[in-house]
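Mods, move this if it's the wrong board.
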Amino acid sequence: MPAIFTPKVVTANALLEGDVVYLTEADTWSRTLQEAEVLTDEADAQIRLIDASSRTGEVVGVYLADVTPDQNGPKPAHFREAFRMSGPSNYPHGKQSEAL
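Not the wrong board. Structure tokens:
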């Protein structure tokens, strides 16, 4: 029996800055998960993944990440994605330093 497809977003790292980015419905990259396009159809998700993977001048490490839909936008479904959203772990650089 095949696994049930769970909602996903296309994510990657920006080529020049290294920031985590998410593919939006408008086919642009956003640094905010809440702006990401939530994909609920497996075929659509695979097409979006293939298209995004070809944008080698913009991003690296493109993959599908599980999310939980929410009224305020998607939320990470796994610790790894929540951790990636907080920025680099070499504190106090990047997004983590902004909280200081």
